[in-house]
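Thread title: Can someone regenerate the structure for this chain?

I was given the following input by a collaborator and told the matching structure tokens would be attached. They weren't. Posting the sequence so someone can regenerate them.
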Amino acid sequence: MKLKNFTDLNAWAVEQWEDAELGDSRRTQRAIAVGAAIAANPEASLPNIMSGWNEVRAAYRLFAEEEVTHSELINSKPKSFSPKSDR
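Best answer:
Regenerated them for you:
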């Protein structure tokens, strides 16, 4: 597999999760937003990553949904890896 570097983390997150079947297209959009935010600062806690308390609560609600599983997020499509170009 050829690895790609992404400097646009939102574009990277779209590539990773746009085909995830999470039961509602809004969940997919939220997964993309949360994934891009986490990729930008992977060592931080969720409250420190998200832009405000409403975003934190939305992320926790997403993770609590029955259809949002680790398996679905990981297996939604073949992945390229390396969200940061400076590594």
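The mean pLDDT is 84.
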